[in-house]
């Protein structure tokens, strides 16, 4: 983890090296932004992901730009950010956000066969734990249309910023409110599909769904 590509130069005091904390950030999140090269130009896309041990899994259409880039061996950069609050300081300069973030560098390995199918299961279960047991298995056509790439966690860096504003001493006592507005992602009540047949009860794992 101490290689130059992942060394944090800006605000290194917020760097996190503890692998447990890094895994916890990745497990709480489920949306990442992936940067790759296409025709010598940078492209960034949002996509769902899941951590699977020492790697993250990304899925998409076999014809998507990301999957095509991974097949060509393009370098990838993956960013996951959880915003925990807005830091309201007495100046615009000191105003910021409390966050937890992870950046991963690497190349994607295209998964095939049984490993491909298992990876799709991991993605489903990571997004909604308990769901896999209720849904049907993917068809061969669906498998052919959906690609999964794995990116190892060998090159990873993380930062955590937390706490109140750090105002300049000259700004203290000015009568301007300062503090933190906490933010969190919460799940609302599940909304049944309009074509849901009568008598189908909602699973407990949906009524209690939350990210943690």
Question: What is the global morphology?
Answer: globular
Low-confidence stretches: none
How many distinct domains? 1
Topology as a string of helices (H) and strands (E): HEEEHEEEHHEEEH
The share of residues in extended strands comes to 25-35%
What structural category characterises the helix and strand content? alpha+beta
- The radius of gyration is 21 Å
Output mean pLDDT. 92
For the sheet with most strands, the description reads: 9 strands, antiparallel
| Percent helix range | 10-25%
> CATH homologous superfamily, by name?
Electron Transport, Fmn-binding Protein, Chain A
Q: Number of helical runs?
A: 5
Which architecture per CATH? Answer: Roll
Explain this structure.
- This protein is of the alpha+beta class and 212 residues long.
- It has one domain: Electron Transport, Fmn-binding Protein, Chain A (Pnp Oxidase, Chain A, Roll), CATH 2.30.110.
- Helix content is 20%, strand content 34%.
- It is built from 5 helices and 9 strands, in the order αβββαβββααβββα.
- Strands 1, 2, 3, 4, 5, 6, 7, 8 and 9 form a 9-stranded antiparallel β-sheet that branches.
- The longest helix has 15 residues, at 113-127.
- The two termini are 25 Å apart.
- The mean pLDDT is 92.
């Amino acid at each position: 983890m101490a290689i130059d590509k992942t060394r944090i130069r800006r605000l290194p005091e917020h760097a996190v090296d503890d692998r447990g904390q890094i895994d916890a950030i990745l497990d709480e999140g489920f949306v990442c932004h992936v940067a790759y090269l296409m025709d010598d130009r940078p492209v960034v896309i949002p996509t769902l992901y899941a951590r699977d041990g020492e790697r993250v899994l990304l899925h998409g259409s076999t014809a998507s730009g990301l999957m095509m880039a991974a097949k060509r061996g393009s370098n990838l950069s993956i960013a996951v950010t959880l915003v925990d609050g807005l830091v309201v300081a007495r100046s615009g300069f000191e105003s910021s956000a409390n966050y937890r973030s992870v950046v991963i560098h690497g190349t994607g390995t295209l998964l095939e066969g049984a490993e491909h199918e298992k990876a799709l299961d991991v993605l489903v279960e990571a997004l909604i734990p308990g769901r896999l047991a209720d849904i049907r298995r993917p068809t061969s056509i669906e498998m052919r249309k959906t690609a999964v790439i794995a990116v190892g966690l060998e090159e990873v860096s993380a930062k955590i910023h937390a706490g109140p504003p750090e105002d300049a001493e000259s700004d203290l006592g000015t009568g301007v409110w300062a503090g933190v507005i906490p933010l969190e992602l919460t799940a609302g009540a599940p909304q049944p599909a309009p074509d849901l047949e009568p008598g189908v009860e909602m699973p407990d794992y949906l009524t209690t769904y939350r990210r943690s």
